[in-house]
Specification:
Structural class: alpha/beta
Shape: globular
Distance between the termini: 70 Å
Strand order of the largest sheet: 1-3-2-4-5-6-7
Number of helices: 12
Strand content: 5-15%
Helix content: 40-55%
Order of helices and strands: HEEHEHEHEHHHHHEHEHH
């Protein structure tokens, strides 16, 4: 009888350890690795896959090892539990450590750019960060009298999004895609990424992004930061005011403004974007 009890206890311990290990290994992303040279980590924006960087990777992979990420819940990558964005960050830190990536450059679009800033706040061993149309606090831009602590998962807007039927969600995705790129040929792709996103990740992940406010903490960044900002639809002067205010605590950075470009600069000004990135990587 004692032997049976010991065996059961051992099985319970083993089973518990297995669950803990699986939870610990919950992956925040899938990654493709292409090319050879100093590492470059490419982060997509919200709902997008790593394919958003395809044209850039064709060139960058000739001189650099490109690690191209697609985050959990998007592009068919298995969703993870909340809090989504902190877990994505933790997974990337673990990936960099496991792969022993040194002197890496972080390139991120939109959410990916904000994530790059967040990673650089706690790690000054990266080579540099290139931010493509992203801010330290999207919430402060979008919400009057913004307070990070007010951003909670359980709110009427999130409930409405979670309950929205497929037809309503597609209409919303259509309007959003049309506003984010001047290149009309890319609207269908942007819309498709939104439609294929896991709904809970779409809702709660965006809450994570709005909650994240790095405007004070970016003062801790000590590596070079290059910011590329789209000027459509608000105009260059308005965009300059927004970026100057949001980045006022970042000690040193270079900023360039993409004329005739909406949020997806890689689709509206691909040559301009690629030339700047290649120069920054030299």
């Amino acid at each position: 009888m004692k032997t049976i009890k010991k065996t059961l206890v051992l099985l319970i311990i083993l089973f518990s350890n297995t669950i803990i290990t699986l939870n610990a290994q919950e992956k925040g992303f899938e990654v493709r690795v292409i090319g050879k040279g100093e590492p470059v980590l490419l982060f997509p924006g919200f709902t997008c896959t790593g394919d958003v960087w395809s044209e850039a990777v064709k060139e960058l992979s000739k001189t650099n090892t490109c690690h191209i990420f697609t985050f959990a819940g998007f592009g068919g990558v298995k969703p993870i539990k909340k809090p989504w964005l902190p877990k994505i960050k933790e997974s990337i830190i673990n990936y960099i450590s496991e792969k022993k990536l040194e002197n890496a450059t972080l390139i991120g679009h939109s959410l990916g750019g904000t994530l790059g800033l967040w990673l650089a706040i706690n790690n000054n061993e990266f080579k540099k960060v290139i931010v493509v149309d992203a801010l330290p606090s999207a919430g402060a831009l979008m919400i009057p009298n913004f307070k990070s602590e007010d951003m909670v998962y359980d709110n009427p807007y999130n409930k409405q999004l979670l309950e929205m039927d497929a037809e309503g969600f597609e209409k919303m995705a259509t309007l959003m895609s049309q506003g984010m790129a001047l290149n009309k040929e890319k609207h269908a792709q942007i819309k498709d990424w939104i439609l294929k996103s896991d709904r809970e990740t779409y809702v709660y992940g965006y809450t994570d992004l709005l909650k994240l406010d790095l405007r004070t903490d970016i003062s801790k960044i000590k590596i070079p930061v290059t910011i590329l900002a789209a000027t459509h639809p608000y105009g260059e002067e308005t965009v300059k005011k927004t970026y100057t205010e949001q980045y006022k605590n970042l000690k040193a950075y270079t900023i360039k403004y993409a004329k005739a470009s909406a949020h997806f600069i890689m689709y509206d000004q691909p040559k301009w974007l690629l030339n700047i990135i290649k120069t920054e990587l030299e």
